[in-house]
Each structure stands twice: as structure tokens, then as C-alpha cells.
Design brief:
The protein is mainly beta. The protein is built from five helices and 19 strands. The chain has one domain: 60s Ribosomal Protein L30, Chain: A (2-Layer Sandwich).
Length: 310
């Protein structure tokens, strides 16, 4: 498969520059906030359980497909192999990693799901470590989370890519939001944008924990039986989604970028196989968040979807 690839180079400021300014920006949203530059923890270990050890080395963000593949008409057969995506953007043929949020591998499962993606490789693409989880709405209406059977994604995906090496990262600790319905990832994105504006586009990617507190998520159920008939409006589309509230702790591979799709975060919990999905916002004034981000040097746009989507 030949993928359409476009790229945009970025020149982000240093992590130290971001840290000092972002702490001041976030202090208006949380009663307690600390932003610092630290050496990354090992993300393969608890509580993260991701495929790569770190977020450093040749960092970039990747936007694949798009909401136009889902709305107004779901295109179930739209899929990509993340290995092929990595090859197409020249990411670490010997070593690399991708993590983020995507549609699940319909081509493997035969039903529609959300995907919290996490993939790494060392010694070439034949040595893949796939720590991705898919999140499904079962026929009985329950939520089930399981390991993905392949490196395929469907519909769309937003990823942070790197060599997966340990190194300096931006660490954010925040708790007790003044607005309990705050979206942590969107608040970080807006904070960065308030500092640097559109004149200095910055894309961050990484992972954050909802260490405690309840939050709101949606999970795409299976495609409707009349999936060849477009949704008539966004209200009908949003009513099709399944909405759930889950308590922390949960892990969210995240893409709070400042171009293309502005933010996209999917979650899972190692503690249970019945919590996960597309993160929207918190629901708890006593919530605690812990995040680790790195800056991207390049944005890649792969196989953009036709149409704008909701």
C-alpha cells in the first residue's frame, strides 16, 4: 500500500522554557500544579505498561486518516498497519515506537472498537512489541478491554512517535481543578497555546495518568446495521456513542497537538478489563493528574480523510 504523506517541520522551545511558563498558565486551572523537566520513568513498568521505555529520540507526531472516515458515513474498511505508517514516515527502521489514540482493528476483530495504541520494535519491524488495548461495547452493553490482536488501526489515529528511548521529559502534576469538569489534556493544550500562540506551533505527545477522580469517556459501539446510511447530524452521531464514567487510576496515551486534530486521548486501566475509551473530561473536584510529555520536531499527515467530520 502506498500511503499519502505530508510533513510540517517544527522548532519547539526547550522543555525548560515550556516548564516555567506552563506552570504559571496552569495555576489558574488547578489549586496545585507543578511542571518540571525530569528524566522519564520506564513506561514499560507500572503503572503505565506501555510498549516503549521512553519518549525520546527523533520525536514526531502522526495524524492518520480522520473523522471524515467515520462521519457522516462510517467506512469500516479504512485501516492501516502501524508498521506501514512507521515505514512511510521513516521512523526508526531498526528501533522505534508509536503511542496514541485510534479506531480499533475492525479488519481483525470484525466489530468496531476504540484503541489505546502502544507499539515498539527493536532490531527491525519483525520484532514488534504490541501493548495496545482495544475497548469494545459488548452486545449486552458492557465495556470490555483486551489486548489488540495486531498492529492494525481503523478510521483514524493520532500518535506520538519516537525511538522510545529514555531522556528528559516534561512532567506535570496537577490536582483539585477549580472546574471539576475540566479536560486535563485540553487544558494543557490551551495553556501552551496561550503562551506561544499560533506563531510558534508546538505539538506535545506522551502519556498521562488520572491518578484519582472520576472522568467521562465515550466508546464507539459496533457500526449500526444501516451503516451505509449517513448520520443525519452530529446529535444523531453523539447519541450513537456510548458514554461512561470511570474512576481512576487510568492511563491515557495522548496527543495534545496544535495543528490538525487538536487533541485525542484514549485510556485503559490495568486494574480492570471493564474501563477504557475516548477521554473527554473530568468529573471530580479532587482529581489528581500526572503527565509526561515530549515535544515533536515534525508533524506527519498520512492519508487524510475526505470531509470534515464532527
Amino acid at each position: 500500500m502506498v500511503l499519502e504523506v505530508n510533513s510540517f517541520s517544527l522548532s519547539p522551545p526547550s522543555l525548560e522554557n515550556i516548564a516555567g511558563k506552563l506552570q504559571r498558565a496552569l495555576s489558574s486551572s488547578f489549586q496545585s500544579t507543578t511542571v518540571s523537566v525530569v528524566n522519564s520513568p520506564n513506561f514499560r513498568e507500572a503503572p503505565f505498561y506501555l510498549a516503549a521505555e521512553g519518549l525520546s529520540g527523533d520525536a514526531r507526531v502522526v495524524d492518520v486518516g480522520g473523522p471524515g472516515n467515520l462521519y457522516p458515513l462510517p467506512l469500516a474498511d479504512k485501516s492501516w498497519s502501524l508498521k506501514e505508517v512507521a515505514e512511510a514516515i521513516g521512523l526508526g527502521t531498526d528501533k522505534g515506537s508509536l503511542l496514541g489514540a485510534a479506531g480499533g482493528p475492525y479488519v481483525d476483530l470484525g466489530f468496531n472498537t476504540e484503541l489505546a495504541a502502544s507499539l515498539s520494535w527493536e532490531g527491525g519491524f519483525n520484532n514488534l512489541l504490541n501493548a495496545a488495548r482495544y475497548i469494545e461495547v459488548t452486545p449486552s452493553g458492557d465495556i470490555h478491554v483486551d489486548k489488540s490482536p495486531s498492529d492494525n488501526i481503523g478510521l483514524m489515529g493520532n500518535f506520538f512517535g519516537s525511538l522510545g528511548e529514555p531522556g528528559p521529559v516534561l512532567k506535570i502534576e496537577a490536582e483539585q481543578p477549580y472546574n471539576p469538569n475540566i479536560s486535563f489534556s485540553e487544558t494543557v493544550r490551551q495553556g501552551v497555546n496561550s503562551i506561544y500562540g499560533d506563531d510558534l506551533p508546538i505539538s506535545l505527545g506522551g502519556v498521562f495518568l488520572i491518578k484519582s477522580g472520576k472522568a467521562n469517556y465515550h466508546i464507539m459501539p459496533d457500526f449500526p446495521l444501516d451503516s451505509e446510511v449517513p448520520w443525519s447530524n452530529t446529535v444523531e452521531f453523539n447519541n450513537w456513542l456510548q458514554w461512561r464514567d470511570f474512576d481512576g487510576p487510568v492511563v491515557l496515551p495522548v496527543y495534545p497537538g496544535l495543528r490538525l486534530r487538536l487533541e485525542h486521548s484514549h485510556c485503559f486501566s490495568k486494574e480492570t478489563d471493564s474501563a477504557g475509551g475516548h477521554y473527554h473530561n473530568g468529573l471530580d473536584a479532587y482529581a489528581k493528574y500526572e503527565a509526561y510529555f515530549n515535544t515533536a520536531q515534525v508533524i506527519y499527515r498520512v492519508d487524510p480523510a475526505e470531509g470534515d467530520g464532527p
